[in-house]
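Supplementary Note 3. Input sequence used for the single-chain structure prediction.
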Amino acid sequence: MEKNIIKLENIIKSYGDTKVLKNIDLKIKENEFLTLLGPSGCGKTTTLRIIGGFEQPNEGNIYFNDKKINDVPPYKRQINTVFQKYALFPHMNIFENIAFGLKIKKISQDEIKKKVSKMLSLVGLEGYENRKISSLSGGQQQRIAIARALVNEPKVLLLDEPLGALDLKLRQEMQLELKNMQKEVGITFIYVTHDQEEALTMSDTIIVMDKGEIQQKGSPVDIYNEPKNKFVAKFVGESNIIEGKMIRDYVVKFADNIFDCVDKGFNNNEKVDIVIRPEDIKLVSKENSKLIGTIKSVIFKGVHYEMIIEENERTWLVHSTLKQDMDTQIGIHFRPEDIHVMHKED
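The predicted structure, written as discrete structure tokens, is reproduced below.
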């Protein structure tokens, strides 16, 4: 059975009259790569700072290996943090930056050399010991910040949007490197981002947050394919969201037609929201579809064409590898398993 290393229990945090976290309950497993995902102001960084001890909750408890740590200061927690601004010491060389925490712990010089060398190898910067921080690229500085955090052998590493300052190509490369590092060192990573691609690429588990609340917890596949509500469906990936009615288990009505689906557990004739991802829509001949629309926009996106199709008074977003001509009438088709039915929000 997998062990929970961090547990948040009924966490509430307010700044003045503004409640930024509302009854957050969260369990994080040992050796898990967990991502807090959401828009600016959703409470993800505040959650991270509470775990690290940089903020105190107004109510609720934080547990580390089942021991309450509300009053334990950050430097006494077995948790290290990598911030978006790497906070490296410009007057120290790379070796001194990585060794800083070890020197404070009064570890022997031989042991420090051994640990720093191991970290430089892990982040692919062997031989950089004597370089100045100012000589490094953004990606290299990010690696040094991670090495400095990991050299102290924390049980948990917190990462607050550490790739935000990097360009797109480097950011994508570092996503894979971070995931590989996490597997190699075998500790829990808790990662904060507003970038859905980062979350889907790296995470074992994603926590989607909005307005100080957890909207959904699940694997990347579950979050993408089975969004719990309209917010998650819109925030993680692109979606067609249509109002509908669940006739009965496995049968749903939307877009003026009745379709088979794979969902159950709804009340008969319950009003629902339907999610269909644009890549799950197939364009077919008019004779082979219940829905017929007119192509109003075609944009080449590299791996696919993004099309806007108008059908009655509805607009459909479609991703297809096959280019279509503007103003063509076309059939819109999807399989029962591509229709995802959600309860309507209150």
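The first strand starts at residue 4 and ends at 15. Residues 39 and 194 are 5 Å apart (CA to CA).
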